Prior knowledge:
The protein is an alpha+beta fold and 165 residues long. Helices cover 55% and strands 14% of the residues.
Amino acid sequence: MTVFSVYEPPVGEETDAAARADRIAFVKDGFSWVALVVPALWLIYQRMWIELVIFLVVVAAVQWGFGTSTQGVEAAGWVTLALTVLFAFEANDLRGWALERRGYHFAAITSGRDRYEAERSFFQSWLPQQARQTQTAPPPQKKASRAATPQAGDGDDVIGLFPRA
């Protein structure tokens, strides 16, 4: 079984459940093979710019710190490999934090044999909740501005803020 953390997008103008469902993010818990093999490209693909800069600075600092001698280059390679493995274990957690920084909020944990089964099990419980929320919530009403509503004592000689000529 694969476990996923589910993040809902920030509440915005879209009230349609289908539009919100398209933006829901499923983040796999555990090790990321792609982040191990090509960590910088994985960060670029996930649009995690702050984490990319930090990763590149740390790798450059390790390379610079160990120097250019043969032993230093070899030690820097081993340390960089260890940092990359550590990053691969933590990459999906970093992705969840990046989503929260963008306004997403943690919705649930779901599991399944693969991502499709996990999505199906999540949406089987999520969609009925959304239907209940739209049925119980009153329709949003626009607030009328003070200038648009006639007040007692207002004459017909004023349109908006400007009097008629």
